[in-house]
Amino acid sequence: MTNREFFLQHVGQTSAAPLCLEIVKAEGCKLYDVNGKEYIDLIAGISVCNVGHRHPKVIEAIKKQLDAYLHIMVYGELVESPQVQYAKLLTTHLPKTLNSVFYTASGSEATEGSMKLAKRYTGRTQIISFKNSYHGSTQGALSVMGSEYWQQAFRPLLPDVLQLNYNSFEDLENVTERTACVIAETIQGEAGVIAPENNWLKALRNKCNETETLLVFDEIQCGFGRNGTLWAFEQFGVVPDILLLGKALGGGMPLGAFVADKKIMDSFTNNPVLGHINTFGGHPVCCAAGLAAFEVLLEERLIDTVKQKEQCFLSLLKHPAIKSVRSRGLMLAVEFEDYKTNKAIIDKLIEQGVFTDWFLFASNCLRIAPPLTISEEEIKMACQVILSSITT
Predict the structure, then answer these.
(1) Does 170 have pLDDT greater than 90?
(2) What angle do the packed helices 306-316 and 376-391 form, to 10 degrees?
(3) ∠ at Cα 29 (27, 30), nearest 5°?
(4) To 10 degrees, what angle do helices 81-92 and 284-299 make?
(5) pLDDT one-digit tens code per residue, 147-161
(6) What is the biggest distance separating any 2 CA atoms in the chain, rounded to whole angstroms?
(7) pTM of the predicted model, to two decimals?
(8) 165, 131 contact by CB (below 8 A)
(9) Do β-strands 100-104 and 256-260 pair in parallel, antiparallel, or remain unpaired?
(10) DSSP label at residue 194
C-alpha cells in the first residue's frame, strides 16, 4: 500500500474528499510534493509560518534545545529557560497590563484557558462571543464558535453562552454585570477577513469597562504582524484584558498561549490550587522555536513590508469574476459568486502549483495568507496563476 492509502485508512479524516497531497519538503514560501512538484504556499499552514518554512534561525534554535532537554515537566515547579525567555520577550512587546503568559499546546486550548480564567476571576458565568467567529474546535471553544452549522451535531455544549453580531453597536447592550467575558477576534478570519468598523472595538471596550467584564481578543490567526502591525489591536487603540495567541506563536511548532495581567492570572493559584494545568503547554522545543521566529520577525523587520505586499496583491487581483477583495495586511479574502466557482478555481490553482483554500464561514472566498517573507516576484506569479485559473 502507498502512503496515500495508509493515510486514508489509518489517519483520522475531517473531510470525505481530502486533497491527499504528499508534501515531502517545505522551504521559505514553497512546498514540494513526493513527485518533485513545487507549490507557492499562499496559506502558511493557516497563518502559522509567518517567517517562512524552516527559517534557518528557527531550525538552529530547535537543534540547540534538542541537545539540552525535551519534555521534563512543563507546568509544575521547574524553571525552563526557553519558556521564560519567550514570555519575557513577548511581554516586552505588549501593553504593560498584558504581562503574564500561560502557555498551551494550541490556540483552542488558549481559548479554553481564557474562559476558565474569566469565570474564576469575575465569579460570573456568562460568556459572549460573535456570529461567524472561530476560536477552535474543542467543546468549550466550539461553544463560542459563531455558527450553528458547526455546532449542531455536538450539542449540548456549554450553557450561558450568548452570540451577538460583530460590528453591531445595538447588540453591545447585551453585555451586563453577569457577563464574565466577551471573546472577539480582532479581525474575523474564517468569516472572510472582516474588520471592526466605526470605532466599534472602542465601544466594546467601554461597555466591558462599565460592566467590569473581561475583554478577550483572539489574535491566534491575525497576530504576529499579519495585519501590518505586530498586534492587530494596535490599529484600533484598544487593549484587551486577555489576549489569545497560537499559530505563528510556535514558529512552526505546536504552541498556544493566553496573556493577561498577573493579578488576573494569579486566580489560578488558589481555590483551587492548580486551577489550570497543561502537560505540554510551553514545551521547551516549541518555545525555543517560537522565540527564534519572533526574533526573526522583529530583527528582519518583516512587518514593515506587509502593507506593500498587500498592495501588490490588491493591484493584481482584478477580474470581472472577482466580486471583491477584503484585506488586512497579508490576510486577504478573494470573493467569488459562490462556493462552486471558488472551489473550481482552488482546484485549478493546486494543479498549477499554487496552494490555497477557502474560509469556514465564507466558502465563496479564496484564502490568501502567505508567509510574510513572500517576495513580490512570488506574489506576481501567484496572482498570474489565480487570474488564469479564473479564465480557463
Answers:
(1) yes
(2) 30
(3) 60
(4) 30
(5) 899 899 999 999 999
(6) 64
(7) 0.96
(8) yes
(9) antiparallel
(10) B
Instruction: Give, rounded to a whole angstrom, the gap between the first and last alpha carbons of the chain.
Output: 35
Helix (H, G, I), strand (E, B) or coil at 366: strand
Going by C-alpha positions, the residue among 302, 121, 97, 120 that lies closest to residue 217 is 97
| Band (16; pLDDT cuts 50, 70, 90) | confident
> How far apart (Å, rounded) are the C-alpha atoms in residues 361 and 331?
15
Output Rg (C-alpha) for the chain, integer angstroms. 21
Could you identify the residue written with the cell 469565570? Answer: 119
Residue 46 CA neighbour count, 13 Å, CB half: 17
Q: Would you state the pLDDT for residue 392?
A: 58
Cis peptide before 272 (omega within 30 of 0): yes
pLDDT for residue 182: 98
Task: Pull the grid cell for residue 233.
Answer: 489591536
Cβ-in-10-Å burial (0-12, 13-18, 19+) of 109 comes to buried
- Is the confidence at residue 21, as pLDDT, over 80? yes
Query: In the chain, at which residue ranges do the beta strands (DSSP E only) sit?
Result: 23-27, 30-33, 38-41, 100-104, 126-130, 161-164, 179-185, 214-218, 242-245, 256-260, 324-327, 332-335, 354-355, 358-359, 362-368
- Average pLDDT of the residues of the chain: 96
Report angle CA 236, 179, 273 to the nearest 5 degrees: 100
DSSP 11-70: S--SSSS-----EEEEEBTEEEETT--EEEESSHHHHT-TT-BT-HHHHHHHHHHHTT-S
Alpha carbons 251 and 86: distance in angstroms, whole number: 12
Residue 175 banded pLDDT, cuts 50, 70, 90:
very high
Q: How far apart are CA 193 and CA 212, in angstroms?
A: 29
Residues 191 and 156: their CA atoms lie apart, in Å, by 24
- Pairing relationship of beta strands 126-130 and 242-245 according to DSSP bridges: unpaired
Q: Which long-range contacts (CB under 8 A, 24 or more apart) does 14-23 make?
A: 19/350, 21/350, 21/355
**Angle at alpha carbon of residue 385, lines to 384 and 387, rounded to 5°:** 65
Per-residue pLDDT tens over the stretch 84-111: 999 999 999 999 999 999 999 999 999 9
- Per the listing, cell 460583530 goes with 166
